[in-house]
């Protein structure tokens, strides 16, 4: 029995750590930590050719945290981060999942895992009140990148508030080798107050029913994964990088595009059993689905990962940056002035 | 000349039959029959290796029927059911289609069939007033699962009111064998009154122009294909099942997912000419398109078929259940308490 | 160094020419030219087996033009046409792109080209004020049909106002030969005034944030590519035709369908590196993406190209027609009366 593929229970993401030692003079709200997961916290690739067993723990935590400067929100999370911890296993591996609900929570929670054969993807078996705990055994019988998410009554609100993450089930033979891997999650937030408001924002169920969010985000934070936020992702010219993206939704399809680059190889909906698609500019990613895509980095640039439904970028807070540093290649790209 | 592949003109779906013998004391509206087609009414697979001719009749019928308990709506249907009868033929088969419009109808109707080479997919040739009748000959020259739908001026309203169904054109060589097949149709309904209202609901063309429905449904009924509605679909552990789904729309893309299972093999947009995709969790199905997907059933469970834009499930009436009974497999899935 | 693959700087589309010699007595607004590009203005297929260099010029032009009869709008365009000129090159070709901004413009502009490895797809390098000019060198390292679009702050408005077009990078070996090729662009327009209004319409940024357009269009004109507008596209029975479609968005996914026909062969999202899909009825095309699809024309018919989210056709001005003339084939399709 091996413990693997998961952030430890006490792990604190870089994002949260970075926010902690804020300087005096910064307002309480600005100093408040965010829920944004560190996109570099990706479990390592699997090189085994045999199945193993994993012990995984997920804790449902309702936390008030910073959504943007001067603005906060009551998130629902797995392990205090958005997206929830990335779990990485191999096809035919087995998992004992312990699901806990923090005693301070106000709502019931559970988890539906798309990698699972079984009622509700485990939702019925893991239903728990605040302070509760449930355990589930399952085998990962088929490969793919799958979402897990809360699935209680009113699950769309719980997912919008951020109760989703990814379990990656690597196929026999694994994935092609790349130099760096990143992990992020898109979702939309329905609030009464528009982007730019300050103070504590309130959830708006009517807006959710209309599928009209005020925020569309990566990792639960306005412009969080940028230089102006918690920092851009980093890579070097000549490397290959992989993006794991889970779209929690609850309602919107993402049109996922890397500005200034191309999905050289990608697996639509996270379906790793089939051959990847080649050189896709913009890939639809359904709500309740995932995306795995690889890029080459032949030139230095700032790659912006976006949903190409661009009003979500221009007006709703969605942005993630990948800074690629290194030597220019004027045979590929150069300004002529 | 052979008559095949279609419910007879007088066929009454299980759904309608089930509603008929309501107990005294139930209100008129509750006792009112629904338009929900029986999802098990699927024409049998085709084993022929030669082409044949089919005589098919579709009747446009405007019917007032039960949308939910205590709530009714004036549907437009093909043969009184939603989705319209599933027509099943083989590539290179020919069809003589007779289209009738019930004399009691108030609007003109016609049919556009995506399996047809010809103006409007047959729409111009089949335009008819109430009481009218038109006949059309066509060859099914290419394989696939295709929508047919009304296509008069204002067709979006007619389709929202349920004038759509599927014609399956099996490829040469047929489809892989499965144990059971089911057939259902997603669509959205635009009404002035919200879900939960009682009495006769009214169509809202402005809401349709905004693509903001109050109802998203399978088979024209709130939670119709569930144990609490007309009954869940049934299967046994160890069987394989196929879902034929037609998305009438008129406007929304479905993100089609089987909760607690996986599309082991599916044909996006119903395109049967190509190889299927493997192990897809959530498949986009465009409005005016179809889906064919197969599942394995290794464990007993209640599989919920949903559009993973989950506010449509949580707040707009979309749900279909498939109950799988049999012996548990604790090596795949078990509650640990 | 070769100049190729582009409309000349002074080229005037058929659409604009057609509108020019309006009869006296027609109101000023009706006589106003449109921005609709001629869908037949497609650069020829490439038969080279070696790389060449291209000099391409794109000019940002803000122009007041006819949106519908009696109704006008201030468009932002590339070279005065919508979509912008189609640029056609071969994988490994290089391009020197000169981008100009007309002195009469009021806003800054730039261009992001999805075929480019480099920051912003060239957006930073091409940022220019009214009257400005910038030059950029790039290599087309990978094949596909790609969108180019303005990418300044507030880019969603600039794209909605029509600053988008296609660059086709043919793969080594080229595309399958067809008899005719057409080029068109879908996008949505957010205005305060509804369809049917007269006079100058005003942009509505709030409606854009809600992704609730009043117009969804091909080529910047209500029903422009129809017999009642600037004229239908034309082809003959027995020919094969290819449709190049770029979806500017900025927000809506198109469910692209040819009424009365089928995408016999198509490349989802314009990804030409992979094998095409076969016999697809309705293909999702993400905003910020492209589509390449081929049809056979075995019968005479009027093919209508639509987004099968049909309220956009029925209520928002989206329509393009392809008239196919020739001898009927009663073995495939015939009215029986």
Walk me through the structure:
Three copies of one chain form a homotrimer. With 337 residues, chain A is mostly beta strands. Chain A is built from five helices and 21 strands. Chain A has helices spanning 14-19, 28-31, 155-160, 205-209, 311-316, and strands at residues 53-68, 71-78, 84-90, 94-101, 112-113, 133-139, 144-149, 164-170, 180-189, 199-200, 215-218, 233-236, 240-249, 254-259, 263-267, 277-280, 283-285, 289-296, 301-307, 320-325, 333-335. Chain A has a six-stranded mixed beta sheet with strand order 11-9-13-18-15-16. The radius of gyration of chain A is 19 Å and the shape is globular.
Rg over C-alpha atoms of chain A, rounded to the nearest angstrom: 19 Å
Largest protein interface?
A: A-B, 53 and 39 residues
Average pLDDT of chain A works out at 92
Query: How can the largest sheet of chain A be summarized?
Result: 6 strands, mixed
What percentage of amino acids of chain A are in beta strands?
35-45%
Strands of chain A, total number: 21
Poorly predicted residue ranges of chain A: 1-29
What is the helix tally of chain A? 5
Shape of chain A: globular
Q: Say what oligomer this is.
A: homotrimer
Q: How are the strands ordered across the major sheet of chain A?
A: 11-9-13-18-15-16
Reading the helices and strands of chain A in chain order gives: HHEEEEEEEHEEEHEEEEEEEEEHEE
Determine the fraction of residues in helical runs of chain A and give it as a percent range.
under 10%
Descriptive terms for the model:
disordered N terminus, 337 residues, 5-stranded mixed β-sheet, homotrimer, mainly beta, globular, 5 helices, 6-stranded mixed β-sheet
């Amino acid at each position: 029995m091996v413990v693997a593929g998961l952030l430890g229970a006490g792990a604190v993401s870089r994002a949260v750590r970075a926010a902690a030692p804020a300087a005096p003079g910064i307002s309480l709200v600005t100093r408040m930590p965010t829920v944004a997961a560190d996109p570099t916290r990706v479990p390592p690739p699997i090189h085994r050719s045999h199945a193993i067993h994993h012990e995984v723990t997920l804790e449902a935590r309702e936390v008030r945290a910073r959504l943007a400067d001067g603005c906060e929100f009551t998130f629902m999370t797995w392990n205090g981060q958005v997206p929830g911890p990335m779990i990485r296993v191999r096809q035919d591996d087995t998992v004992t999942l312990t699901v806990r609900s923090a005693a301070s929570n106000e709502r019931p929670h559970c988890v539906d895992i798309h990698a699972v054969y079984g009622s509700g993807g485990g939702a019925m078996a893991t239903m728990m009140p605040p302070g509760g705990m449930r355990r589930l055994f399952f085998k990962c019988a088929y490969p793919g990148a799958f979402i897990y998410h809360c699935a209680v009554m009113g699950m769309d609100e719980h997912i919008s508030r951020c109760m989703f993450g990814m379990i990656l089930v690597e196929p026999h033979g694994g994935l092609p080798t790349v130099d760096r891997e990143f992990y992020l999650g898109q979702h939309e937030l329905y609030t009464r107050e528009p982007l730019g408001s300050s103070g504590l924002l309130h959830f708006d169920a009517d807006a959710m029913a209309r599928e009209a969010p005020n925020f569309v985000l990566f990792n639960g934070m306005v412009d969080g994964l940028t230089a102006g936020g918690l920092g851009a992702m980093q890579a070097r010219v000549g490397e290959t990088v992989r993006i794991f993206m889970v779209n929690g939704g609850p309602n919107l399809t993402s049109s996922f595009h890397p500005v200034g680059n191309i999905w050289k190889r990608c697996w639509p909906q996270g379906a790793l059993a089939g051959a990847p698609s080649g050189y896709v500019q913009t890939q639809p990613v359904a709500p309740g689905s995932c995306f795995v895509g690889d890029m080459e980095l032949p030139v230095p640039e700032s790659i912006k990962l976006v949903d190409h439904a661009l009003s979500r970028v221009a007006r709703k807070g969605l942005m993630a940056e990948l800074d690629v540093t290194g030597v220019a290649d004027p045979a590929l790209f150069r300004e002529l002035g």
